[in-house]
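<tokenise_the_fold>
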Amino acid sequence: MKDMKTVYQITKKLRGDHGPNQDLPVKAEDGSAITEEKAKLERWREHFEKILNRPDPPITPDIGETETDLEIEMGTITLNESAGKPLY
């Protein structure tokens, strides 16, 4: 697993991807590009206010109890259980 991380990091460096680019413009509601940092932050604030402050749905789902309970072991994962499986 550690080798794959190293390969990924080398590939990333070779193709010139050194991290997120903070200088990208943000699209305004009217479709124009916003390039000023203060205006970008204001646009993100507007966007998330609109997304996160929606009204409750008119009909709430009625989800009943299950007929059978599943037995799920919630202990720590052993090395044998995680071997060979990706962590993501």
